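Section 5: illustrative case.
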């Protein structure tokens, strides 16, 4: 038997070329199908463009919370304890104005008549020029607490609402659509859960008309109901809960529709595993570039918690948000270690989000900043204590820099990321990166061939040693090589990018 030899290579260009040579012998390899990336920024949380990580890890980055606290809290008696995260925030493409629709429960009515009565829940509308200072337009549509001077746009059991813009083919029904839940007082089948979902349309987002096809869904989905229009497939994608007769409802289910009336049978998208808490409570979804990003709510409770039992140590009834991602909106992935994305503030800091921190769709891109609105609650998810402890709710804001949801990171020991074979666009001249380094850290890039028998070959002049190291913290910087000022030599060709990182975060790359 031959003796096995172990080699340790120093991190330099020549040793890397020796240690990572392509296996030779087959000169008739049939080229595979390369990834077409165009000029779109390539985020790195999944394996879509990433072939291998060696010495690197993925890091999920939490958005930075606004230190001044919530942007919307209860200011009037008709707002009761405050708005919930079960709603929508949009930025109007024609005016630039921020718009928010959310529901508010009336604890006075609930105490007197119960949660299921129509007047217990209302829809409230807010708007803003800058996304921070919000107005309550005096709509004068519905009486609440003895007056119509309020921002109530819908009343009558309105809860778990979601507003979304319609494609042009449905503008005869309105510019906006809304799905919301409503108590089902006379179910056609006694076995049905006493809940239904209804559809409404509006031209201005304030005055709404019920769809004649209502109700469009029976059964319980008492959490964020989120609908995303997918123009690539011309379908609406509804993230909801499963039907009540399919087992535990607190899980992430999916249905889709072409007309918003006929929906496919819900399927479970996110299976529990050994790292998950008792319940995956809901998941609003936003489109971001080529990706779907999900705010996965995690409810940390004990099974007896719903019965009003005292909570064992470590099971405290809080809810936080984890980040999930998908290329098609149906097959979802998460970081293997399940890091938190929007965390609860510590109790005792007078924070609104120490009990719940629930992301709201949608992501709002504002220049180089991504705004993450989320609902905070200063109480636990505890039905037995719902009206015994002080209750406060607010809409909060956190931000992160463009594309900086997840990074490929290497520490002082260094590491490498190799892409899958990708097509360098025919008109590409430059490679841009969104990256940051610390101390003497750097990012270097070697270009390798990616097609057929030459897959992995090192073209002369494009090694790590010729790569001018990136250092600093920039959202968009051009990578350069000492021997060339343009990538035109690779235009239209299949290549691999080989990144060498040390004390660095790489968030995305793109061709230009």
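Designed sequence:
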């Amino acid at each position: 038997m031959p003796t096995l030899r172990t080699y340790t290579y120093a991190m330099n260009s020549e040793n890397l070329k020796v240690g990572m040579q392509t296996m030779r012998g087959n000169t008739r390899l049939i080229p595979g199908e390369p990834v077409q990336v165009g000029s779109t920024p390539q985020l790195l949380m999944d394996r879509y463009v990433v072939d291998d990580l060696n010495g690197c890890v993925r890091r999920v980055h939490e958005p930075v919370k606004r230190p001044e606290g919530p942007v919307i809290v209860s200011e009037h008696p008709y707002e009761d304890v405050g708005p919930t995260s079960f709603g929508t925030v949009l930025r109007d493409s024609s005016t630039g104005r921020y718009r928010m629709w959310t529901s508010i429960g009336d604890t006075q009515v609930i105490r007197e008549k119960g949660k299921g009565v129509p007047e217990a829940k209302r829809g409230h509308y807010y708007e803003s020029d800058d996304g921070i200072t919000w107005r309550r337009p005096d709509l004068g549509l519905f009486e609440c607490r003895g007056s119509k001077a309020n921002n109530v746009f819908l009343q009558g059991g309105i809860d778990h609402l979601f507003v979304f813009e319609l494609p042009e083919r449905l503008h005869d029904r309105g510019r906006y659509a809304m799905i919301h839940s409503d108590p089902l007082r006379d179910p056609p089948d006694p076995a049905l859960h006493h809940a239904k979902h209804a559809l409404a349309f509006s031209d201005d987002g304030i005055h709404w008309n019920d769809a004649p096809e209502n109700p469009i869904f029976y059964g319980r989905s008492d959490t964020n109901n989120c609908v995303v229009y997918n123009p690539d497939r011309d379908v609406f994608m509804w993230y909801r809960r499963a039907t009540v007769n399919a087992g535990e409802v607190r899980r992430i289910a999916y249905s889709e529709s072409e007309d918003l009336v006929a929906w496919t049978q819900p399927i479970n998208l996110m299976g529990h595993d050994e790292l998950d808490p008792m319940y995956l409570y809901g998941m609003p979804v936003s489109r971001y570039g080529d990706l779907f990003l999900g705010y996965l709510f995690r409810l940390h409770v004990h099974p007896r918690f719903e019965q009003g039992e005292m909570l064992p140590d470590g099971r405290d009834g809080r809810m936080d948000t984890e980040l999930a991602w998908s290329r098609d909106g149906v097959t979802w992935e998460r970081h293997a270690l399940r890091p938190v994305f929007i965390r609860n503030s510590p109790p005792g800091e007078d924070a609104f989000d120490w009990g719940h921190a629930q992301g709201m769709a949608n992501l709002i891109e504002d220049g180089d900043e991504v705004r993450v609105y989320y609902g905070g609650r200063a109480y636990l998810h505890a039905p037995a204590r719902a009206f015994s402890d002080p209750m406060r709710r607010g809409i909060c804001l956190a931000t992160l820099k463009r594309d900086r949801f997840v990074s490929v990171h290497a520490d002082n020991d260094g590491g490498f990321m190799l892409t899958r074979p990708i097509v360098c666009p025919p008109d590409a001249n430059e490679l841009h990166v969104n990256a940051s380094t610390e101390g003497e850290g750097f990012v270097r890039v070697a270009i390798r061939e990616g097609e057929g028998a030459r897959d992995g070959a090192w073209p002369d002049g494009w090694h790590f040693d010729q790569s001018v190291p990136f250092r600093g913290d920039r959202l968009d910087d051009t990578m350069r090589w000492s021997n060339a000022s343009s990538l035109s030599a690779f235009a239209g060709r299949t290549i691999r990018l080989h990144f060498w990182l040390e004390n660095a975060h790489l968030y995305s790359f793109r061709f230009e």
